[in-house]
Design brief:
heterodimer, A: about 270 residues, mainly beta, Immunoglobulin-like, 2 domains, 1 helix, 15 strands, B: mainly beta, Neuraminidase, five-stranded antiparallel sheet, four-stranded antiparallel sheet, about 40% strand
Chain lengths: ~270, ~350
């Protein structure tokens, strides 16, 4: 018995020291691969009356499932099989994924749509510091043009990209608006070193009206669009300052650990 | 015994066992994955060319070419071994190169019976011509004589190709987006392209090749960020474009009648969304291994492409052998070795 064990040990040591591994070429089976996420499309992410969402399949024979979450729990069942375009009339997060009998289930993809309560297109906006020259969007007005970007940030002029720890946005609302919520729409794509917002502070004349701290900012997550909300006292406002803090040190689990993360934002919404 | 042989021997491969709910299969009722469309479909070998990373490490596996003997040359930006030489079975036969930290583009050219490699190094800001065993025979340095650059850092070459007359074309795909045209001795002959959105300009002129399928040589150049494959004559005059919406194509590789293109991102450009694009002689996308089924509308426009199955992360190049198998090298893919697609 000792001889047998010794032989196994010698073979193991020999194999572990070989400078190449045994080439075990073999074809992969379907279950080794995951379906890509379905595609959710809409003509209007920001809408006045209603918007129509379409979910497209990643693979022939895949079944599409979705849930739509809004303030009124429009669809009470968590997962509904998608069959035709979905009409939405309120702020909604639509989540969808795909299944197939032969492949692994896809990741869930989501899209958030917003009903425009107050357009900020006529407001004045200033931002400090400037966005990185590579991601200047359409200038400062990018954030108040009632148009959202997509996850395709590389070819888009709908995003402002910052590689700075703090960004200060000054808004002058004309006429003053009755507001109790400020929402910042952003992109998360950690493979591209774009992390979520870490903190938001909304001020009026240096007085903090409301804030939001994102305790998940440094956790790994899928690429997606995400909107962060800050509640403020319900009042008429004509001047507001929004201070954004990004992830200053990318965490250890990421290849860019220790460096400044990117922050991408595309729209400010108020309600 | 391979898994396929086991299934055949055991007679289980064709059993019509019912599914236990969507999304699950009995563990033994496995089926080979087949990707691609129409006449260009493939099985996937994820283990081809895998080596012990303690001895033969890779970072990004950027490009691969095949010589006349059938040996495959993989270029990586790991300076322990910038070039790994394989046979088609995936066994390592040679390795060399420690001086190419920005090893990015790899082309091969036969000069009167002797083959040479052209390495585009985007860290050294130059192109290096070597023998197949790594001896440097010529360097194409930062082209200051072009008067387009003030500093070597502005010139970041990504790819080369060599015309039938020996002229060398270099794409400055990560730099100022010019195409630099030399004669075989390295004398600058022409500069064209440049960064911009006009037809003759580029947003990421990433890859280039000579197309001799029509009998008259021309240049095919990928504009990766624009999802375009552009054709120029050998004097740098713009001729035509093929738009491939949603396909971030790296470099064109012509094999027989088709053009094969590693597609590093797809759809909206999200990470890990790559697939392979295969165009027929009319520049129509006929197969997209790892991608959704290509669809053309009634007006003949390709509908926006995206990934369908997560087979690839970031394909950066393809090499096609005489049996029409495809070897896929990937950027930013967890330091993995090439994937082989076996034509069926």
């Amino acid at each position: 018995m000792r001889i047998v064990l010794l032989s196994f040990a010698v073979i193991y040591l020999f194999n572990s020291c070989k400078n190449t591994i045994e080439n075990i070429s073999s074809v992969s089976d379907t279950k080794e691969f995951q379906l890509s996420s379905p595609l959710i499309t809409t003509e209007k992410t920001l809408f006045k009356d209603s918007t129509l969402l379409v979910i497209e399949s990643p693979y022939p024979g895949a079944v599409l499932w979705f849930e739509a979450i809004d303030n009124h729990t429009q669809y009470p069942i968590p997962n509904i099989q998608y069959e035709s375009p979905i009409s939405l009339k309120e702020n909604t997060i639509l989540r969808a994924y795909a299944t197939h009998p032969e492949y692994q289930t896809s990741d869930t993809v989501s899209l958030e749509v917003f009903k425009i309560k107050h357009s900020l297109q006529k407001s004045q906006i200033s931002i400090s510091p400037r966005a990185n020259p590579a991601y200047l969007g359409k200038g400062n007005s990018t954030l108040i043009n009632d148009t959202k970007g997509s996850v395709s940030f590389r070819n888009s002029d709908e995003w402002l990209g910052f590689d700075q720890p703090k960004i200060t946005i000054d808004l002058v609302l004309d006429p003053p608006l009755l507001i109790d919520k400020i929402m910042i729409s952003s992109l998360i794509d950690q493979d591209a070193w774009i992390f979520p917002l870490a903190e938001i502070e909304v001020k009026k004349a240096n007085k903090v009206l409301g804030s939001y701290v994102n305790f998940d900012a440094e956790n790994a997550t899928n690429a997606k669009l995400k909107t962060f909300m800050v509640k403020i006292p319900n009042n008429h406002y004509n001047k507001l300052t929004i201070e954004l803090t990004s992830v200053i040190n990318i965490p250890d689990w990421h290849p860019g650990n220790g460096t400044q993360a990117w922050l991408f934002i595309d729209q400010i919404l108020v309600e | 015994m391979k898994r396929n042989e086991f299934l055949a021997t055991a007679g289980l491969g064709t059993l019509g066992l019912g599914l236990s709910g969507w999304g699950t299969l009995p563990a033994f009722a496995l089926k080979d994955a087949v990707i691609g469309h129409g006449s260009h479909q493939y099985k996937v070998d994820l283990n081809w060319g895998a080596l012990n990373p303690n001895f033969y490490p890779v970072n990004d596996c950027h490009e691969m070419v095949q010589d006349k003997k059938g040996l495959l040359y993989l270029l990586t930006n790991h300076t322990a071994n910038n070039v790994l030489v394989y046979n088609t079975s995936g066994s390592l036969v040679n390795s060399w190169g420690n001086e190419y930290p920005g090893a990015h583009g790899l082309s091969i050219h036969d000069e009167n019976g002797t083959e040479y490699l052209y390495i585009s190094d985007n860290n050294r800001h130059e192109v290096i011509k070597t023998t197949l065993d790594g001896r440097v025979v010529q360097v194409f340095p930062f082209p200051i004589e072009s008067e387009k650059y003030q500093d070597p850092s502005q010139y970041i070459p990504t790819e080369t190709c060599v015309a039938p007359n020996g002229d060398v074309y270099v794409t400055d795909g990560y730099g100022a987006q010019y195409i630099i045209h030399y004669n075989s001795k390295g004398t600058l002959l022409n500069v064209f392209g440049g960064k911009g959105t006009q037809k003759h300009q580029f947003l990421n002129a990433h890859g280039i090749c000579i197309d001799q399928r029509s009998g008259t040589p021309s240049l095919l150049i990928t504009e990766r960020q624009g999802n375009e494959l552009k054709r120029f004559d050998l004097n740098g005059n713009y001729m035509s474009s093929t738009h491939l919406p949603g396909a971030y194509i790296c470099r064109p590789v012509i094999h027989e009648k088709e053009v094969y293109l590693a597609t590093i991102w797809s759809g909206n450009g999200g990470e890990n969304s790559g697939f392979i694009s295969i165009l027929d002689h009319n520049n129509k996308l006929v197969s997209a291994p790892g991608g959704i089924t290509p669809v053309y509308n009634k007006g003949g426009e390709l509908q926006k492409m995206r990934q369908g199955l997560k087979v690839f992360k970031h394909p950066h190049d393809v090499c096609i052998d005489k049996d029409h198998n495809i070897y896929v090298t990937q950027w930013n893919a967890g330091k993995t070795y090439p994937i082989k697609l076996i034509r069926i």
